[in-house]
Design goal:
257 residues, alpha/beta
Length: 257
């Protein structure tokens, strides 16, 4: 196992880079006594703005826990998480709900669409709930980018799985959030459709300047990212810049997966 990045410092980034999110000494413990499990063990990590970062690791490595804590969907036991310069570990639940709604976007393996709403209504729903109107020119651009221009009036049950996930990607992009968290976004899709979704996400980073952090178990999916951060036993243990499927797979084999 490569432990060259084992939590003594945040993995090296461009010194001039803007940081979209970071964690310092992030620790998450579940249970007590004999049932105590340390899912995150004093993790230090930073995610660069306008970059696509993948998080990988063996089952039980803490990768999903890290994403959930970074996104404010779960609370740390110790340590701090920052969205930009905002320490979300110091916010109230109400403030955290507002931050997630106004500054973050989410893409999950389950599409989480409202069945009674059309595709375009699902796309604009988070902004509508926040009382913010999505600029029509931007909405048209996002819809065209994900290839939904001729399907925006259809409800989820009239769309394929790939089209539903495109709606979910467009929904995450529509509000122009500071950061999008994606948890196994292609897990329910065939390889061709999954590749299209990942290409849309990469395009959002390169053309729109979006920041994306994605948890995945798939070396091919991770190869679409600019950087891969590897976890094992609740710790950051390695990273790759400009990954390929082969070198991601090699690193994962070294982690014992």
């Amino acid at each position: 196992m490569n432990l060259s990045l084992q939590n003594s410092t945040i993995p090296t980034l461009d010194a001039t880079a803007q940081i979209a999110a970071s964690a310092r000494s992030a620790t998450k413990v579940y249970g007590d006594g004999d049932t105590r499990v340390t899912a995150l063990d004093h993790v230090d990590v930073a995610f660069e703005a306008s970059r696509f970062t993948a998080i990988m690791g063996p089952s039980g490595s803490g990768k999903s826990t890290l994403m959930h804590c970074m996104a404010g969907l779960d609370r740390l036991s110790e340590g701090s998480v920052f969205i930009g310069s905002t320490d979300i570990t110091a916010t109230s639940e109400k403030e955290l709900t507002t931050l997630r709604r106004e500054r973050l976007g989410f893409i999950f393996q389950a599409f989480n669409l409202i069945p009674t709403l059309s595709a375009v209504e699902n796309i604009t729903l988070p902004s509508d709930l926040a009382g913010n109107r999505v600029e029509s020119a931007w909405l048209e651009h996002v819809v065209a980018t994900v290839g939904l221009a001729d399907r925006i009036d259809h409800r989820p049950n009239e769309l394929s799985g790939g089209q539903q996930q495109r709606v979910a990607v467009a929904r995450a992009l529509a509000g122009r959030p500071e950061l999008i968290f994606a948890d196994e976004p292609t897990g329910n899709l065939d390889s061709r459709t999954g590749a299209e979704i990942l290409e849309f996400m990469r395009q959002a980073v390169r053309e729109f300047g979006q920041s994306i952090v994605m948890v995945t178990h798939d070396p091919v999916a991770a190869s679409y990212a600019d950087r891969v951060v590897f976890l094992a036993d609740g710790r950051v243990v390695d990273e790759l810049i400009d990954p390929t499927p082969d070198n991601v797979l090699d690193r994962m084999r070294n982690l014992g997966d």
